[in-house]
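Entry 12.
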Amino acid sequence: MIEGILIGLKTALSFQNLLMVMIGCFAGTIIGMLPGLGPMTAIALMIPITYGFDPATGLILMAGVYYGAVFGGSTSSILINAPGVPGTVATSFDGYPMAQQGKAGKALAIAAYSSFAGGTIAAIFLLIAAPSLSKVSLSFRSPDYFGLMILGLTAVAAFSSKGNFLKAMMMCVFGLMLASVGQDTLSDIPRFTFNTMNLSDGISFVLVVMATFAMSEALTIIIKGNDPTKAAKQISLTDLGSIKVSKEETKQMAKTIPRSSILGFIVGVLPGAGATIASFLAYGMERNFVSNEEKEKFGKGSVQGLSAPETANNAACSGAFVPLLTLGIPGSGTTAVMLGALLGFGIQPGPRLYETNPEIFWSVIMSMYIGMVVLLILNLPLIPYIARILAVPRTFLIPMILFFSVTGIYLMSFNNFDIFLMIGIAGVATILRLYDFPMPPLILAFVLGGLMEENLRRSLLISDGSWSFLWDRPLTICIMIVILLIVGWQIYNSFSKYKIDQKT
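Predicted 3D structure (tokens):
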């Protein structure tokens, strides 16, 4: 482990990678605080920039954008009660009331300290957990990987779709359909290409991400006609107040941060859970731990109520890298985007990444801690000035997103067909968004589609065409049981909700 840490530090502390950490954190903070955008949109916009980069450098940049977006999302939650990212929704419960009391600066400082502490503690957990899990995962076989991928899709569909399991599963199917376009890797027979040479190599991952997140997000804002930054135009630099945190408030945070960090990291490791669920669970847990007197302050500007979700959502970001780096299974839409980017670099995340590309494995982990320090230094002194970015008008924001999306795709392929295809997919994605169809399951299915097919074929070959591989190994059986439990639970919840709706 010591050798790995030294390799990671050497790679992460190079001038180029340090610069990428800073750029990623800054860009993520700004994009994260703009309501309506999120880490997936931010990373999607960064992918064309990383074209031609070293894999370690590219992943460090995207990781910086990821936790920078979650870090920065708290700013809009606290100042204008409009969460920049879903993971900071719970932050607004007590952050916004504090801002209304004239303590916006203090609320932003508490969020910054909590985010730093949560991310740092989780980075240490990742340092310990990732190598251990990587060694364990070497015992995994093709049937186990196939089961894990189904579990990842099912879990993301179940936990990240706001209760609409059926819509999420439909998006998974849509993603698998898009992944099947192109030449079959085994027989070289073209599939769903419509006799078009432009589709013979399949649909570009970057194209799908840019279309479903960056472009469709911009188009959705245009269609709905709402300006996500409108409320921020009233923000004054003098309204923020002091950023000093008292000794009593520090003591309260010191009690909250350790347990919220542990909870956030564990939830982050689970496929489909992510920062949003972690923040809500931490908020609920903290409310149960405090005294009755402190309970009354929750929702009215509680320090612990603000610190808990901010700690947990940043810890969950670090936790999400565990299944990505050790199993090659993304646990969320954001890490699915990163997996796709890594595959584009020619790197296969999984148990052997620890051995074959230790510089990537360890540098990402070490860059996380460096990134947390950068974010703390960046956010605290610049809070009053960064807050003004919230006032960027929609008339500038939307054209910039559309311009970078189209330009980024064209520069990667120099093919006009890709531009038209992206616009077409973006149009479909926008319609689906308007009807509350979630996008993360689609991206996850698209990324995992090829790997699922490969592991399924290998499993069928090993078992002579029999589906008995699903129950031949104890590990595979356990994974399939968990899948059945998740599906069964979701069907039960849907049926219960339907019965309640019928009665009302």
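Annotation: The chain has one domain: 2-229+246-503. The longest strand covers residues 182-183.
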